[in-house]
Structures are given as C-alpha cells and as structure tokens.
Here is the input.
Amino acid sequence: MANRGEIAVRVMRTCREMGIKTVAVFSDADRTSMHVRYSDEAVHIGPPLSSDSYLNIDKIIEAAKQTNADAIHPGYGFLSENAEFSDRCKKEGITFIGPSADSISQMGDKITARKTIIKAGVPVVPGTMDPIEKEEDAVTKINEIGLPVMIKASAGGGGKGMRLVNAEKEIIPSIRAAKSEAKAAFGNDAVYIEKYISSPHHIEFQVLADKFGNVIHLFERECSVQRRHQKVIEETPSPLMTPEVRNEMGNHAVAVAKAAKYEGAGTIEFIVDDNLNYYFLEMNTRLQVEHPITERVVGIDLVKEQINIANGLELTYKQEDLSQNGHAIECRIYAEDPDNNFIPSPGKILHITEPLGFGVRHDGYVYEGYEIPHYYDPLISKLIVWGKTREEAIARMRRSLFSYKITGVKTSIKFLERIMSVPDFVDGNYNTHFIEKNRKILNQGDKCKGDCKAMAIIAAFVDYEQKLSKVAPKSDNQNSNSSWKLNNRRKNMVRF
Ligand code: ADP
Ligand code: ADP
Ligand code: MG
Here is the structure.
C-alpha cells in the first residue's frame, strides 16, 4: 500500500476481506499511524518529507521487493497518477493496481486529454488546444473566447495552477501566476485557456474498465460544494441531474475511458451549467477521495473491483445490472480552523467520539493520543451517510455531525454542520459558488454579524437536538412535564 492515512486503511480493509496480506510503508512521521498498525507488515521508507518517502519510487519498489509484494495499490494523491511509477512497477514485475503508464500520461496532462476527448466525440470546455507560448497571443485568444476565462495548468491537480480572469488587465499577471504555481507544484509550467462556465456545477462519473474492453459507469457524484476549487462535500445522485442527461453523460464517460484504453477505476469530471450543458473537465486516473458515496448507492466495493481487474478478472457487472439506490452524502473532515481562514490545525487528538448508527460510514485513521503530522494533507476522516431520500440523508448527516466530537485539534465539523442547514444546500439549489455566496452565514458561527435571518434558520437546525433535550417547552399545562420531550419531538418531527 503505497500511501498513508485514511485511504491506506480503507484499501487494506478490503484486502483483509479478500484474504490478501498487506504491507504498509511509513515515513518517520508515521511510525504510530493507524495504517502501520492495521497492515500485516510495515516497511520504513524514510524521512517525513513526501519527496523522501511516499513520493520516492525507488524506496517504494524496494519495500515491495523486500516483502515479496505481488501488487501495489497507490491510493489517491502521491504516486497514484504518476505514469513513471506505473511503468516502473510493470518493469519490476509488480502489478500496479491502476491504469497503464500510457493511459495516465494521456489523461494526466489536461491538454493531451482535451485532444483525445474531442476525437471521442465528447464536448470539452471551449478554449485553446495548445499551451500558451506568447503572452500577446493569449490576449488575442481570450478576446476571441470572451471573458471570463480560466487559465489552467496542463499538469494541474488539487485546485493548483488555476486562475480566474475577469478583466483584460488581469490576463498577463494571471498567466504568470498560474505558470509559476504550476512550475513549483508540478515541475511543468504549461498553461492553457478555458472559457469560464458561469454558474458551474462539478459533476463527475465513476467508471470501471477491465482488461477485456468492458467499460461500465457507476453514475454521477455532485461535487459542487467547493472551497478554492477543492471539494468539501459530495453527494449522489446529483440534485441537478435528469435521467436523460445522466444516461447521455454516462455514455460519454464510457467513451472517454475507451478512448484512453483505460483499465481499472477512474473518474470523468464534467463542468455543467444551469441548463445541463456539460463539458469534459478532466479524467482522474485513480480512486477518488469521494468514492464511498458511489459504493453506498450502487452497492459495489470499488477497491475490490480494482484488485480483481488488476488481477486479470473480467467485470461481473453489466451496465443494465446497475442502479442507484437511495442517496449518499460525504463530508470531508479536516484538521483545520474554519474560523481562521481554514489554516491547518495538526496536533494531538485528545478525545474522539465517532458518529455511529444506521446508514453511517466513517472512513478515518486517527485515534485518541494520535498526533496528526503537519507534513501531509490534514484530512482526518470522511463521514458518509446514506438515506432512502436526500432529505433523510441530510437529516442523518446532521445528527452524525452533531454527535462527532474531536478535541485537541480544530476541525471543520461545525462548519459542515452549518452547511447541512443552509437553505440553498437543503433545497439542492447550489453551484460551485455556494460557499462564497453563503460565506457570511457559514463563517460567523454563532455570532450573528451577517445575514441574521439565514443565521436564525441555521441556528434552529443546528441546535435542534440540543433543544430537544435541554430546553423545556413553554407550556401552560404544568402537569405535562413527564411528556414534554415527547410532545416537543412530535411538533418538530418530519416524515420522510
Ligand atoms: P479528489 O477528487 O479525489 O478529491 P483531489 O484533486 O482533491 O481529488 O486530490 C486528492 C488528493 O490528492 C488531495 O490530497 C490532493 O492534495 C492530492 N493531489 C491531487 N493532485 C495531486 C498532484 N498532482 N500531486 C500531488 N498531490 C496531488
Ligand atoms: P484539478 O485538476 O485541480 O481538480 P479541475 O480541472 O478538475 O482541476 O478543476 C477544479 C475545479 O475548478 C472544478 O471543479 C471547478 O469548480 C473549477 N473549474 C475548472 N475549470 C473551470 C471552468 N472552465 N469554468 C468554471 N469552473 C471551472
Ligand atoms: Mg479535478
């Protein structure tokens, strides 16, 4: 398992079910990490910096050889979308649980991917098909496409190397900023131009492809609740989707995977406008952070499928066997301070009470006394809930976040809890501007400095359970004390 944190544990859980022994790798910062404890064996691979450990191909290959590992699962992030790593595994005779180096290079580079996709007959965001060479040419092109536009790094990922341009005077500074950010993050400063899709929704499709050319899609995930182009909450089905568009986008997603000669689990991301016009955004050639919501609604363990595909087995599902059952939502729980511009808050977990109960899945890796290192992404866990309907899933997420307690580090739990009661979210009426649009009511916690009416609605929801148990209702019947809780509940009860 060439990764750490929650995803390493999540993958190893499936391995254990399948009777596959696991080997963890760990840096100095991760000696006491859950993935090391969970695995059958563990190999130390170096100092904390990712470049010296989790991103060091030689060290990972050495660990695999030393333990006679048959296969490597890369998780997400780190080496998961590294073509050289996929190729190196192949050369060393180790199965890479993921696509070939060719598929990764073709899809990992956004400009190359756009060219492939157009050939497959799938709509891409209007824009340039080659890297920007001269700044003056970019200005001409942008005037043709029309503002606003996005300047995007061809090698981009994780929301990096991207700039929104609203005015002509911002063009050149934005190109320079995107290029230098891309150079620093990806060692490649190629950038291109995309028309900015106004009122954008991020909707992606999960695909599975085996070595025999069979490709299926597992429907969509709505990922428009974003901060700085990074996903915060995901849900499936998308509140925006219609059965016709779902079918058409699903077929296009399958066409993209076929065009890339794809093998394994992958995700086709689309940007969609309010009128359900959709455009290919990029393909992620790996397991996605938000994969559990698809697993829950479609009923398929994606990691098990990845392993079976890598093992040369044929897919056992046909497209017509699959359907979406109910509704799932995921919240990403980070060690960060939402009241202080989301600065990471690594440190020791003093206490943790995880949410439990029907329809709740908690994919995490921390425990009491564990110290979250400051070297890596401060994701603590992913909270996934399922409900028969979207309303039920939201209510279940609310009560799960309510009962999720962590002390020792700051977390995004309260912020997420507030989102669950923001009218735009509850109504399923949101796009990628959601957090910015509702910034005042989301950021100010209990202090009502912003939109007091909206704050009041949120406070009513967030305090719902506390109120049920702590506040006695105003009742003129003094004798109703014994049944006040019940009466109050009945008044507030919602039927799904
Ligand atoms: P997802 O849709 O799975 O959430 P993200 O783009 O958010 O995809 O990436 C998942 C994780 O991988 C994040 O922790 C992110 O920081 C990391 N990541 C994404 N792209 C890269 C990259 N090119 N290099 C290093 N890490 C990356
Ligand atoms: P990354 O590789 O960093 O994930 P993406 O190309 O997937 O980059 O874009 C990340 C997010 O940025 C999208 O989910 C969307 O919110 C926003 N975005 C990207 N391109 C556009 C565009 N052309 N118009 C509007 N929003 C965009
Ligand atoms: Mg993306």
